[in-house]
Here is the input.
Amino acid sequence: MIVQACQADLAIGLYAWAHYLLPIVSSRSCNPQSRVKATERFEAIYPTLKEVTLAGSPGSKALKQVSEKIFSFAAKAAGESVSELSGEATNVFIWCLTQNVDCYKQWDKIYEDNLAASVSVLKKLSDDAELGTSFEYGKPKIPW
Here is the structure.
């Protein structure tokens, strides 16, 4: 089903990934081996997931839905202690904010439970502002 959806419409396919596959990959387990396997699975699908996300039409209804769904996962991952994961999740978190204003409302509801993620996002935005960079579609750009 997901493969067929991806072929017909990338945004719908991405929504299906985010709705059905990410919960499986990001579920927490008491067993450390399961967590390592889940991390490996996520690392395997992430490049494709990110590529498909960035290929969508900015501002489209489907992409707004996708950004809302991905936002909660990015918020959890941005607060993780693994710097590579946290950094990438912070970028995705900010990308979601740029795609859908409703993500700000979501952030307002969850920030107290995700303080580490919020600090990471605010630090990234502050650092980018100090460097004179802007954030567009998950990639920092230097304005010149």
Remarks:
- Strands lie at 134-136, 139-141.
- The chain has one domain: 1-134.
- The CA atoms of residues 42 and 48 lie 10 Å apart.
